[in-house]
Amino acid sequence: MNPLPHPFGRTLAALGGAVLALGLLAGCGNDDTKTAGAAGTPTGDASTAPTSPAASDGVSAPTGEPSTGTPSAIPAYYVGKTPQGDRLFREFTQVSGVDKLVAAAAAVTSGSTVDPDYRTVWPQGRFASVTQSADAITVTLKDDGWLQAGSLKPAEARLAVQQLVYTLQGTIGKRLPIKVDYAGKPAATLLGVDASAGLKAAPELDVLALVNVTEPAQGTVVSGSFTAEGRASSFEATVPWELRDASGKVVKKGFATAEGWADKLYPWSTKVDVKGLAPGSYTFVARTDDPSDGEGAGPTQDTKVITVT
């Protein structure tokens, strides 16, 4: 398994998902937090740009610290459309006043995303508890409703399980297996997926979108310039990007170079100068390079609507 880099950098995430997580699970555990900003906070050249998770693997947020009551950023994985079909995109969200694993699981199952292009495929409901031991993360089911896939197609059920696995592992920063308990004993399945040996993360290229923007977050306010970053597996590590105005016109474009490609997703980062642009709403677009020149399924892309001041 690949080493797990530290996820904390400059990415922003809104409090909406955190508020919902707290509403679902208030009082279910202690909080292990790191300070992070909220979407809508000015960034770019501003000296007060907040600190939050960077565009790395997203699986090394440290745990075990006492609660401070300050917001903590966690990576949540959601489903979005790509040329390869539905894949997982990562979005950071803030939580406070509740155990991070509990909040992470609630974020996945509630599907309260900041980016409207993302969604969850989980059926309605929530876990009874989510706990961590030295060798596993254990999710406990409230009833037998999630033992089988129900109305989910097999592919949807497998992707839902991977949503949970990637999110919980990312929250603790360890590739621990996910065990499932029901009625005081291990459950053999979760959403119809075999859980008897513990649920593990599938290879990144099988389940993750091939490009993901983690900064700027949806709704970020920028001024002067901003750093865009994320992860990608793109041909020859090239990640083309564009900035479009409200009419869809491309007003800036360029490319970033990721740290690698082909075998997994790698971090990429670029600085975008917005000096001279009229204040207003813009869409930042990052995509994979398309060596087929349109002959294949087309590039994967991720978009974030931001505000330039």
UniProtKB/TrEMBL annotation:
Domain Bacterial spore germination immunoglobulin-like: 211-295
Biased composition (Low complexity): 36-58
Key words, A-Z: Signal
Domain GerMN stretches: 77-185
Region Disordered, residue ranges: 36-77, 286-309
Listed Pfam families: Germane, Gmad2
Signal peptide: 1-26
Coiled coil recorded as keyword: no
InterPro entries: GerMN, Gmad2_Ig-like_dom
Extent of Polar residues compositional bias: 300-309
Domain of life: Bacteria
Name by which UniProt lists this protein: Gmad2 immunoglobulin-like domain-containing protein
